[in-house]
Amino acid sequence: MIGSLVVPSPSLVDQSVSVVVPVYRNEATVRELVSRITAVLETYAPQFEIILVCDGSPDDSWAVIEECAARDPRVRGVLLSRNFGQHRAISAGFDRVRYGTTVLMDGDLQDSPESIPLLVDEVRRGSDLVLTQYGANMKQRVTSRIYARLIGRLFSTRLPARIGTFRAFSDRFRQAMQQHHERHIMYAALMASLGFKTSIVPVERSDRSEGRSSYTFRTRIKLAFDGIISNSDAPHRAMVAIGATISVLSFLYLLIVLGQSFIGGSELAGGVTLAIAISLASLGLVLASLGIIGAYVFRVYQEVLARPRYLIMEETEKDGT
User: Fold this and answer.
1) Domain coordinates of the chain in residue numbers?
2) Which residues, other chains included, contact 71 with Cβ-Cβ below 8 Å and sequence gap of 6+?
3) pLDDT tens for residues 248-289?
4) What is the CATH number of domain 10-231+308-315?
5) pTM summary value
């Protein structure tokens, strides 16, 4: 016995469930979320824990988490020192998982806790990664399809569209993710690159009951750029290809202008305007290429510094007590 918790046997660990929830501006939904997860897992899993990671939320989410943890020792709260971003908050939760199957879900109640057994059942049947696929409106379908194709191209894999944060992992899959120590962790891209046996479960996704998503269009663009820079050299290769194409076209244009001048008798100055335009376009590409190279260099610099992904300000439970 450690404190008020019983250390489970290995067999119970394999059957038990850890639910990791990054929390940001979810003050109004945390209580209901914990209540619904608890109601589902009390009749499904021999042991379970709910790990709520407050990612520097500016509202009273942490106070609500503390309240939930005080009522139920199976609820564990982690308060980060500031807002580090969803992926690093997820990392903080993964680092504290104690059971064999891990479920990851959002804290806004769009992911239904009642669907957790569907995901865990797939893990128990042998899947290492269980993804959820949900319906979406036309705008979401387009952006989701673009993102899925982008990730698929980067990692030479097929990733279905409309895949949500809500997913489950086996213990060995979670451990494989934790072997990747880069500071700018991007879990969607990382999971797509790991392999292992993957299955997909269709689920219903509820409308947001409170507030609005913190993922604005600008945030999504930044996240996509970070994911590409962290996991692929595609931007650099694209710039090399574009630069080579422009160089070839410019050389061909020069040959055409010279041919018109020497064979057709036209004045050589006739193509000066287009030549200037090509030069300016080439200069813009050079500057953009330098910017992309700079982004890679800065990312390498940050990794060399080896700073922690996140900093903990407070926990409702420490050292397993």
Assistant:
1) 10-231+308-315, 234-305
2) none
3) 777 777 677 667 666 655 555 555 666 676 676 777 777 777
4) 3.90.550.10
5) 0.71
